[in-house]
Design a protein that fits this description.
Elements (H helix, E strand, L loop, with lengths): L3 E5 L4 E6 L5 E8 L2 E6 L4 E5 L2 H14 L1
Antiparallel strand pairs: 1-2, 2-3, 3-4, 4-5
Amino acid sequence: MDHYDIIGAGEGRWDVQLRDSLSVVGYVWRTGAGFIAWDWADRQVGVFESLPRAVGALGAFAAAS
């Protein structure tokens, strides 16, 4: 999570941006099933047990794209 800014976007929702940039990597919603991560193109990356894991998966997905 060191390379990203986590921006609150409402209750249980976060936008994930590259640190010191306006480039959006994706966003995360907290649900009953866990933390669901989507990339910048609205593709679901997965469901995770914590916000840090969801952000890490977004970063890995963005690096692979």
